[in-house]
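Recap from last week: sequence in, structure out.
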Amino acid sequence: MVVKDFRELPKLRDSWSHVYAERCRIDRQDKAIALHDEKGVVAIPCATLTLLMLGPGTTITHAAINTLAQNGCMVVWCGEHGVRFYASGTGETRSSQALMRQARAWADPDMHMSVVIRMYERRFGEPIPPGTSLQQIRGREGARVRTAYQAASLRTGVPWAGREYSRDSWKEADPVNRALSAANSCLYGICHAALVTLGYSPALGFIHTGKALSFVYDVADLYKTEITVPVAFSVAASGNPDVDREARRLCRDSFVETRLLKTIVEDLDELFSYGSSEDVYSELIDGDDPALPGDLWGPSGSASGGTNHADGASPEEE
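Predicted structure tokens:
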């Protein structure tokens, strides 16, 4: 799908998930992109692709970036195995409505706490009893995650000694920890792409804070025990020596099977009490020419932008 103007919102829920590339050259081929390496050429139809992760040794042409941008595919520059995040492109949405709703909820203590509760309830799959303190909720979340790791270990027979790895000694980590890092990296990339595409800020986190990707971590945590934990233990149990690649492949399959992008959209709608997804889309679509500036803020309401407000004003007002 090519977005013909910036007022159209991308059908994120219908998109594919991600492609990771390293040590190759990427250019435009017809209306798609093509990856060139020593093994040959692979064409990728980017019209329904959500995220392209560029690892070490990749070069990409201006024409390829232009094609990806026109098709609403986010580009992320990352480190080897997709573990380190360096930079990203921009999403399609040019409306600020989602960002303003997010910022209002983030800045208001009561609304902020309401979003936090909803996020934890989404993880737990049940309401949190009134009067439960945030520390108690965090303790319950820690127990939930520990149980998920133990259950995956029992199911696959893969020993679990805890979450331990170092970026400086990546190869020394055990297979399940390496698989978890690779899988989580893919999940972060997909969540980041979804947030930027829908117009949210990755930095305004509600549970996590202080990082440029705090909200990405918030959203990704909704799905780790359902997706990346099972994937990582399955990879470790398979004995596949290429742990990182296999984890990315299984994540891609799981993202499609679980319709993760659709779920992210619906969960964000619920977190900020938008109502139905269709209502969100209609509300976020700007009705004006996208080349014109937006409205002007005022304490009693907004005024039209792109207008000389001195025209028709009294001499005193001028």
